[in-house]
Amino acid sequence: MPWSRVGGRGRVGLGIARESWPIAGRFTISRGSKTAADVVVVTLCEGPHTGRGECVPYRRYEETVAGVVAALEAVRPAIEAGMAREDVPRLVAPRAARNALDCALWDLAAKMSGRPVWQLAGLAEPQPLVTAYTLSLDRPEAMAAAAARAAHRPLLKLKLGGDGDAERLRLIRAAAPQSRLIVDANEGWTPESLETLLAVCAEVGVELVEQPLPAGNDEALRVIKRCVPVCADESAHDRGGLADLVGKYDAINIKLDKTGGLTEAMALARAAKAEGFKIMVGCMLATSLAMAPAMLVAQLADVVDLDGPLLLERDREPGIAYDGSLMQPPAPAVWG
After folding, report:
1. 58-97: buried (b, 16+ CB within 10 Å) or exposed (e) per residue?
2. Which DSSP state fits 313?
3. Separation between Cα atoms, residue 37 and residue 21, nearest integer Å
4. Distance, CA of 269 to CA of 216 (rounded, Å)
5. Is 255 a catalytic residue?
6. Please, what sign has the CA dihedral across residues 66, 68, 69, 74?
């Protein structure tokens, strides 16, 4: 790929910023709740050109905002001397930090070359995509009410993983009879409950179930009949772990904060397709700056879940335009 290295014609200026974006209400999954999306933004400047990337450090992977900032500061001399994308995994440990840096390098290369990232990466021009819209874990009646309010959306993603999931599923289906449904259990089910809950998912027409069992304790998926396709999320990171997923999962959820950036995400999507996996492209709670590079990978996906900005009180400006659940390709002023 051209423009894998930036710098060389002048020093690259590095900016690292911590930002907190309030969530519209409270966002709850099986592991807990949050009221803000805490992100790190990397800015690379060379001459008149600026590239940006955004990441979400995630405690599930033992990452923190402070740790990501420290990891980036530790390689500031290499970045400012003109780091290549190929150097990022070798020099930066936290995957979220790699993501922000990798995406900033892509964005800077696009701005310097005058060509969009999709061209530099050898991809087709991105088209509008329908994203899932996520319903936070709550009491069954509250989730049914939320589903009724979102029943005009074509694809709903249900955060499950607690007692009462069967009731939640049936009430939500009754409240949103026309919406397609996918489920994310966030490792909250058990091998003992798995077959029963998958059967209820099939009953109400759920099309995909993400990570029903904890990563590292998901061998039961090899031996049960999967009446609904099952997607790896916390069990899927990069190409190095792909072989272990064969036989357990039908799909993988690719998130740039897990792969360590756009570069590995594109490679993982192609490798996963070659292995016969369906592809889902997802996100952490973040702004349009994080959705924009993920949208390029999402052009290869069977299921798209890039609704992060829709769940915030406000998005950064400029941001990606959403017409309901239809997201438009990002303008160059956003990224890429």
Report:
1. beeeebebebbbebbeebeebbbebbebebbbeebebbbb
2. S
3. 5
4. 22
5. yes
6. positive
- Cα–Cα distance, 68 to 86 (Å, whole number): 19
pTM: 0.95
Query: Residue 34 catalytic?
Result: no
Burial class (CB in 10 A: 0-12, 13-18, 19+), 120: middle
Radius of gyration, alpha carbons of the chain: 20
Percent of residues, the chain, with pLDDT higher than 70? 97
User: What pairs with residue 15 in β-bridges?
Assistant: 43
Contact 325, 155 (CB under 8 A): yes
SS3 42: strand
Residue at 152: amino acid letter: H
What tokens appear for 69 in the block?
A: 């900032």
Q: Which of 111, 157, 159, 258 is the catalytic position?
A: 159
Q: What mean pLDDT is predicted for residues 21-42?
A: 92
- Give the pair of three-digit tokens for residue 127: 């088209």
Q: Which domains does the chain have, with CATH numbers?
A: 13-117 (3.30.390.10), 129-327 (3.20.20.120)
Among 111, 157, 248, 255, the active-site one is: 255
Residue 333: is it exposed, middle or buried by C-beta count within 10 angstroms (0-12/13-18/19+)?
Answer: exposed
Structure tokens at 241: 């772990």
Q: Report the pLDDT averaged over residues 205-222.
A: 96
Which residues have C-beta within 8 Å of that of residue 244, sequence separation ≥ 6?
A: 235
**Token pair 């099952």 is at which residue?**
230
Categorize the per-residue pLDDT at 331 as very low, low, confident or very high, splitting at 50, 70 and 90: very high
